[in-house]
Amino acid sequence: MNCIKSTDFSYLGLRRYINSTSLIEYIHDNIDTFTVDYSLDIKMHKEIHANCRVDVYDYHHEYSDEIVMCEVVLKSNNSKRFVYFLNNHGAITKSAVEATYCAEEIELHGKFSGKYRISASNYNEFIKNIIQSNKLLHFKNVALEEFKVLNMFMKNVPVELPEYKDILDIEIKNIGIRDADNGSLSTLNSINVVGIDLQPILVGFKVVRLET
Fold first, then answer.
1. For the whole prediction, is pTM greater than 0.85?
2. Could you tell me which residues come within 8 angstroms of residue 212 by beta carbon, excluding any fewer than 6 positions away?
3. Dihedral pair phi/psi, residue 76, rounded to 5°
4. Which residues contact 185 (CB under 8 A, 6 or more apart)?
5. 47: domain range?
6. Strand pairing class (68-75; 39-44)
7. With CB atoms 3.0 to 4.6 Å apart as the test, which of 142, 152, 155, 194 could cross-link to 169 if both were Cys?
8. Between helices 123-138 and 20-30, what is the axis angle to 10°?
9. Total number of domains in the chain
10. Would residue 95 count as lying in a domain?
11. Average pLDDT, whole number, for the chain?
12. Half-sphere exposure of residue 144, counting CA atoms within 13 Å on the CB side?
């Protein structure tokens, strides 16, 4: 096991939870350098409101459900690594960071589907604008003031790109919607990056109705 000392997250904008962008950026910036054949699967177990301890294993490890906040599997052709963000109740003490995005709607293709143009001059820009595009697309279909949109999992996320570009086009296709009794719902989208040979990225969102 390789234990990385606690994270030092900042909230983004007005959020009061640590979002998936910050978690993926943390892995990219703090775990051993990867080649372009690596990808990751990430699953959020709980909303994260504190800093975490990060454990890295070469095999799946069992923890009690109470302490696992997020689980990530790093995959290449030859290996897997398992990354666990664990609750250690470390308070978020850094000032909030202004969230700046560059994600432009090109066209819509129906419910939760469409084409967006994003900035992707480096890895962190690519990740945050991929996720933001999907959130913007959700708010084309649900009322911003009535719902919170949470990224619950992603699959086949590249850990590096073969090349970075100032502008990339992405195609987002909804492949599943599941309704809940209280008016909330879950969605599953597939993302294709135009002009780059990547596996489709799968992303699952929970659209939660806010309490009034």
1. yes
2. none
3. -135, -175
4. 177, 178, 179, 206, 207
5. 2-90
6. antiparallel
7. 194
8. 170
9. 2
10. no
11. 91
12. 5
Model pLDDT for residues 166-187, shown as the tens digit of each residue: 999 999 999 999 998 778 899 9
> 193: which strand partners?
170
Residue bearing tokens 């990530």: 72
Helix (H) or strand (E) holding 189: strand 185-193
Asked if residue 181 is part of any domain, the answer here is yes
Residue 74 token pair: 């790093």
Say how far apart CA 103 and CA 21 lie, in whole Å: 15
pLDDT tens by residue, 19-47: 899 999 999 988 875 666 789 999 999 99
What's the chain's length in residues? 212
- Distance (Å, whole) CA 207 – CA 185: 5
Place of tokens 């990808």: 39
Structure tokens at 141: 């279909």
Q: Tokens 């086949």 sit at which residue?
A: 156
Tokens 């699967």 belong to residue: 41
